[in-house]
Amino acid sequence: MTVQAVILFVIYFSILIGGAGKLNSISIYFPAVTEILTYFIASVLYFGISSEYKNNKLMRLAWVFLGMNVLISMGRSLVELPFWNSVWEGYYSSGQQWWVHQVVILIANSFLLLGLSVMGLAFKKSGLGFVIGLRGYIEIALILILTIVLLSTVNDPFPIGLIILSIAAMASVILHKMALQMGGGKLAVALRLLTLYTLMRATFVLIEHSIGLNDLERRQNIDILMVIDLIVWRFVPWIAALAAAYRAELTVHAQTELKRQRNFGSAPVSTGV
After folding, report:
1. What DSSP designation does 83 have?
2. How far is CA 204 from the centre of its chain?
3. Which terminus of the chain, N or C, has less C-beta within 10 A?
4. DSSP of 235-273, one letter per residue?
C-alpha cells in the first residue's frame, strides 16, 4: 500500500509539475490495475469467510453481500479505462461513461448497504445486548443532515447512489458501536475497518460533490486537488482487503489453536516411571 502510494505520488506530481495537465496512459492504467487486483483479492477473502458460516445464514449472507460489493467495485476502475472508446464509439465524449460509472457504483453501494445491514441484524439476533447509544444516534443524524444539505445545494442528476452510500454510512456507525462493545479481538478490528471503509467512501464522495470533483470534464484535468483525490481513493480498496484479512486471521488462529489442543490431547501422558 505504501509503495503504491509513493509510485502514484511520483506519477501524478510529475504530470502536475510538467504542466501536461492531463492524465497519461501510465497514470490511468497503473492505479486501475492495482485497484482491480486489490478488490479481487478482497473478494476472494470475503467469499471464503462467508463459507465458514454454515450454521448462521445471516452472517453468511452478510459476507456474501460484502464480497459482491468489493467484486463489483472493480468495475469502478474498469469503466474509466480509455480502451472502451475503441469498442464503444463516443463512450467518453457523449457522457455515457459517466452513467455507466454511476450504475456500477450504485450496484456496489447497494451490496455494501445490504452487507452491513444484514451483519448488524445478525449481531442483534445474537442476544449479546448491543446498544447504539446517544452518541451513535447523533452521528447518524449528522450524516443524514449533511446528505440532505448536499443534495439540496448540488445539482446531481443521479442522486440515488449518494443516498444509498449515506445510508450505508449510517449502518456502519451502528456496526462500529457493536465493535466498540466487543472490546479487542480480530473480529472487532475487522468491523472497525469495515466502518472505516464505508465512511471513507462516503466522505470522499461527499467532498467530491461539494467541490465539483465528480464532474467528468473536471476529472480530466490535473491540479493539486485532483491529485490528492486520486491518491486517497487508492487507499479505499486496501481498507476493504485489510478488514477481510483480519477476519480471516481469526479463522487461522482458531484452526491453529484447535490443532495445538488436539496434539496436546493425543500426546502420551508421562507416568514418572
Report:
1. T
2. 12
3. C
4. THHHHHHHHHHHHHHHHHHHHHHHHHHHHHHHSPPP---
C-alpha angle 32-34-36 in degrees, rounded to nearest 5: 65
Cα(117)–Cα(38) distance, integer angstroms: 24
State pTM to two decimals.
0.83
pLDDT in tens, 80-120: 887 887 787 777 666 777 788 889 999 999 999 999 999 98
Q: Which of 172, 66, 80 is nearest to 120 (CA)?
A: 172
- Which alpha helices (DSSP H) does 79-127 contain, by range? 84-87, 96-125
- Beta-carbon contacts of 239 under 8 Å, excluding residues fewer than 6 positions away, are 193, 196, 197, 200
pLDDT tens digits for range 223-259: 788 888 888 888 899 999 999 998 888 777 656 655 6
How many residues can be counted in the chain? 273
Q: Are 250 and 187 in contact (CB under 8 A)?
A: yes
Q: List all residues 6 or more positions away from 69 whose beta carbon is below 8 Å from its beta carbon.
A: 108, 109, 111, 112, 115, 240
Helices 186-211, 236-266: inter-axial angle, 10-degree rounding = 180
CA distance 171 to 187: 17
Q: What is the pLDDT of residue 80?
A: 80
262, three cell numbers: 488436539
Residue range 37-85, pLDDT digits in tens: 999 999 999 999 999 888 889 999 999 999 999 999 998 888 888 788 7
> DSSP letter string over 139-191?
HHHHHHHHHHHHHHHS--S-THHHHHHHHHHHHHHHHHHHHHHH-SSHHHHHH
Exposed e or buried b for every residue in 99-119, given b needs 16+ CB within 10 A?
ebbbebbbbbbbbbbbbbbbb
